Amino acid sequence: MTEQHLPEPPGWALKLLHWYCKPRYLEAIEGDLYELFDLRCQSAGEKVARRGFAWDVVRFFRWKYIKGIENSNRLNQFAMWKNYFKISLRSLWRQKFYSAINIAGLSVGIACCLLIIIYIKHDLSYDRFWKDGDRIYRIAINDRGPYTPTRLGSFLKSDYPEVESYTRLNGLYDFSFAIGDNVFSEPGGSLADSTVFEVFDVKFIEGTPQGALSEPNTVVLTKSVADKYFPHETAVGKIIKSSGDAVKITAVVEDPPANSHMPFKYLVAMPHEYWATTGWWTGNNFFTYVKLAEGASEEAFEAKILDFMRKHMAKDLMETYHYDNFDDYLASDDSYRFTLVPIQEIHLNYPRLTLAESAGDMDNVYIFSAVAFFILLIACINFINLSTARSGSRSKEVGIRKVLGSVRGELIRQFMVESFLISIFSLGLAILLSLVALPYFNDLSGKQFQSTDLITVDNMLWLTLLLTAVGIIAGSYPALYLSSFKPVAALKGELKSGKSGSFLRKALVSFQFAISIFLVIATVIVYQQINHMTNQKLGFNVSNTMVIKAGSALKDSGPFFRSKLLENPNIGGVAASTTYPSQFVGDWGYSTVGDVKDNYSLYTMFADSYYLETMGVELAQGRFFSRELASDTASIVLNEAAVRELGWDDPIGQRLERTEGVFTVIGVVKDFNFSSLKRKIGSLAIRYDAEIHKTKWGSAYYLARVKGSYQETVNSIGELWGTIAPEEPFDYDFVDQAFAKLYESEAKFGKIFTVFSALAILIACLGLFAMAAYTLEKRFKEIAIRKVLGASVFSITTLVLSDFTKLILFGSIIAVPLAFYVMDQWLQEFAYRMELGIVVFLIPVLAVTLLAWLTVIYQSFKTATGNPVYALKQE
């Protein structure tokens, strides 16, 4: 006879139950578990029953059943905190409307703050990734142009041990590459010394820093460019053609990070050795960087540079500026000094020195910081206002709690838990919102932020600290105020919110509107200033003027190219010059001719005789250059600003000289804006060059006045260019678009400012909406009595609106003078700025007032049209 198998629960589970379970519960729990085990065996089988038994044992592992902690104070504390959270969640759910307003407003505010924080952190992080970034300096010449003399870096290194290494850069330029039969124009190229990798710790992917740029006709590509032209193969060792020269790729390096002031895509070796060893000390053509030795003092080294200038540059400077001794030169207005600019400060504080398309602005960092602060402040005010307002309606709850034995400390903890729960929910929702909004924010800002930039330990730490502070502030008032109630008075409903609480809420609402009105005024002024600049008359044909770049590639075919362009019926005129409006114009030193020589610095460009009629620049006096007069190479044309600076009443026939000759003034053109309207029109000198395509004075551009179809014109010129200069890509621009690019940073600033201002107003309106609902709820019976006594719907609605209108007016009294002062300071940066009339202040005040009315009018009307019987029955 075989022994029958009886199912048994797992032994380890039984031992675990006996180990932790209190004796007084053990028998009952064990019996129930066995009973469940038998039932499962019959219904589902032994395996399922054993698993169910083990799971039940684990589920009973609770504070209540664990041995040794039945009298623990910790258990009571735990139970109390659990109760606080449970009651808080119920309270938040019971007041769903106000909780949702609080959480929504605070989360939107935090999300805005997060996005602004990563924007500001990005601007502040420029060039801090270089290993020795705190020892690398760019050499600048006072507030003049960004270029420095050819030999400056090498001579500084040989004279001063403080200079550990130096390098020169020139660019960024567009280079043309020919790879096989394909010709490409690639932007982002810079000429560089072989020492560039001693200053900047560029990371090499292929090749080594040693010898990478030591030979002419060598190039180092970044990974993005290498992958673009040589996908799935190594680029090092490949030969490409650039402007007819064979150039060898010697290395591939990582792309510089986005927060670099020198976002090069490839580095080309300096083509000639003499560029490093010869050159005038008064000719400035390169960007010079130095890396100081460890421990070297920036101030001490900068102080030595004056002796350096005396030793090496004094002779050239005195000859150029016509001084007998160097001290007289130093004491004159012509003198300049070399200064050291930390590269980590270039992006925000020295925009003229950046190689990137656009630079930052320290003022914008301050402004966005203020906007982030204001948005968060508005959200916090909503939170605090609603918390304190709603607290008055909980007096009976407090009275009952006190009667049942709650002490003041427990009530304080209860209200603080509710406050912190809202903060925690808001933080979670804010992170989600900011992640969703990140792609749109990237489009708006022109940056490429990642989610990892958003969720960092630093950001979370700061936000947690901030929300802790907000939670304490918002929870403190109701916690301290309500916990002080006498139980009997609270139960009788004799306690109402005090006048001080009501005044505080009104003051905070007024302050919210002050911030909103300030932001709207600032937004209006920013956009009007941008429109003012873009609509300003520039003094020439800014529209319909096409710029054809790389004119030097035409070589001897320049005149033929021009004649073919003029055969095109869509083109009304063609000229050539070494620059075009909106682009860089170098300032050259000139002196007057005579016994007493006065020195001047004039922006100088070269142009052919067709420039004036093609560009539509008006002639004020004399004549422009003539192609019939070869002697015009010794002539010069000034603009009115230059004549004013020179102080000539009759400029025609006056002479100016430089080292390359004496130039006679033959004409004066009316002032026209050849650079950004942020600056006043500078003193301009135009010199004659009949063969710009062969010019030795800079780049060559052809300017075509288009009078027909743009697309047809571009296509036909492109085809013509391909037949004449097949090795050079066709590259063009339009002057109006080039000018618009000058204001991209302002336009971007305006867009970001507008979006965040709108969100700030939205948050303020959310708070106003909730406050209006609460106020009308409190005045429900008062309004009912007014209706019974004959008040009309209109009079009741206007009564409610008038209360909120007063708060807006108080806010505008604060906002308008402050906005006038701040925005007037901002406008001082622009040479051409709008007038601050009363309209730009009045319209925002009216707009915010109207928006506030729309926010509360629905609830006001609904309350005013309600049946008063329902309200009066509640007595």
UniProtKB/TrEMBL annotation:
It is found in: Cell membrane. It comes from the Bacteria. InterPro entries: ABC3_permease_C, MacB_PCD, Macrolide_Exporter_MacB, Permease_put_prefix. Residues 370-485, 755-868 form the ABC3 transporter permease C-terminal domain. Pfam families: FtsX, MacB_PCD. Keywords: Cell membrane, Membrane, Transmembrane, Transmembrane helix. It is a multi-pass membrane protein. The chain crosses the membrane at residues 97-120, 365-386, 420-441, 461-482, 503-527, 752-776, 836-858. The keyword Isomerase does not apply. PANTHER family: ABC-TYPE MACROLIDE FAMILY EXPORT SYSTEM PERMEASE COMPONENT 2, MEMBRANE COMPONENT OF TRANSPORTER-RELATED. This is ABC transporter permease. The lineage of its organism: Bacteria, Pseudomonadati, Bacteroidota, Cytophagia, Cytophagales.
